[in-house]
């Protein structure tokens, strides 16, 4: 009887998970904006800096950020109304098309919203509704944004990797996921491990094997979970990367040639390590006797 009851969450935790899921839906809509606009914002900034260095007028003078201008259809310019911006539901009601020009709206938008909702609810279910649960939800949101930006651009922006790192260190001042000492060592070791791997690769092949954003992401994961889980994260990301890499090779032979960067593998491995890393380590040592 006791084992049966353990399968169910206490009412307070269930209620908190539902609230987190609803909040995750709303944040998922905002994450779509972040994923689309942050790379554009960074490119506009680079263009303006380059123009200034050439003593030319800045090419981008209009305000463009995560709030301005309002979201609009890229095909006809129709501004998205509040009723057309309800997470998942609006996309379903509109049939995945713009209400004005009927151009197709990517299914990725509701997918990211649903992913954010499920991940938020799952993390609160796992960690509870206290500081650890709230920190874990923020961790998940940042990973979602970075994963899809990296898929689109093969770039991990400092505007997301640095906050993830510092938030992890701040969270661990209260030892939410690791001791502060382990977190600081994890941040340094996470960066240096991939930096050294890339340096050796560059020495042999003559060019970089991965971007600096990957170093910073692993450093951030080390700041959240401590240095002890870095081997687990690297192993998991390598396994996932190998499986997807085989699929990519097969897809390339079929005419599809879309490269997937290493960042999403790290993000997925980091999420698994946050949830089950200590259990995986215990299982490994148990297998080793």
Structure, described:
The chain is an all-alpha fold. Helices cover 69% and strands 0% of the residues. It has 10 helices and no strands. The chain has helices at 2-6, 11-53, 89-93, 108-127, 131-153, 158-171, 180-205, 212-225, 230-253, 263-287. 34% of the residues are buried. The model is unreliable at 1-9 (pLDDT under 50).
How are the SSEs ordered, and which strands pair?
Layout: H1 2-6, H2 11-53, H3 89-93, H4 108-127, H5 131-153, H6 158-171, H7 180-205, H8 212-225, H9 230-253, H10 263-287
Oligomeric organization of the protein chains = single chain
- Total helical segments: 10
SS strand fraction: under 5%
* N/C terminus separation: 33 Å
Helix content: 55-70%
- SSE pattern, N- to C-terminal: HHHHHHHHHH
- Average predicted local confidence, pLDDT: 88
Q: What's the total number of strands?
A: 0
Poorly predicted runs are 1-9
């Amino acid at each position: 009887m006791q084992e049966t009851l353990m399968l169910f969450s206490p009412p307070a935790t269930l209620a908190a998970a539902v609230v987190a899921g609803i909040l995750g839906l709303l944040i998922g809509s905002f994450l779509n904006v972040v994923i689309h606009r942050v790379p554009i914002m960074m490119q506009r900034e680079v263009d303006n800096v380059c123009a200034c260095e050439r003593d030319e007028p800045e090419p981008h003078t209009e305000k463009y950020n995560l709030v301005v201008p309002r979201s609009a259809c890229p095909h006809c310019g129709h501004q998205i109304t509040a009723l057309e911006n309800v997470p998942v539901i609006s996309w379903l009601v509109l049939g995945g098309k713009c209400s004005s020009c009927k151009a197709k709206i990517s299914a990725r938008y509701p997918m990211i919203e649903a992913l954010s909702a499920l991940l938020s609810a799952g993390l609160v279910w796992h960690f509870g509704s206290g500081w650890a649960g709230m920190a874990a939800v923020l961790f998940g949101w940042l990973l979602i944004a970075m994963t899809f930006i990296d898929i689109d651009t093969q770039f991990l922006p400092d505007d997301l990797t640095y906050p993830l790192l510092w938030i992890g260190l701040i969270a661990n001042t209260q030892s939410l996921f690791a001791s502060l000492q382990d977190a600081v060592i994890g941040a340094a070791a996470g960066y240096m491990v991939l930096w050294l791997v890339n340096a050796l690769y560059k020495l042999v092949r003559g060019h970089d094997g991965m971007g600096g954003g990957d170093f910073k992401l692993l450093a951030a994961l080390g700041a959240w979970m401590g240095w002890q889980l870095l081997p687990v994260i690297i192993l998991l990301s390598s396994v996932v990367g190998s499986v997807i890499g085989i699929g990519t090779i097969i897809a390339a032979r079929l005419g599809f040639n879309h490269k997937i960067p290493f960042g999403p593998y790290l993000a997925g491995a980091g999420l698994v390590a946050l949830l089950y890393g200590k259990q995986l380590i215990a299982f490994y040592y148990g297998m080793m006797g």
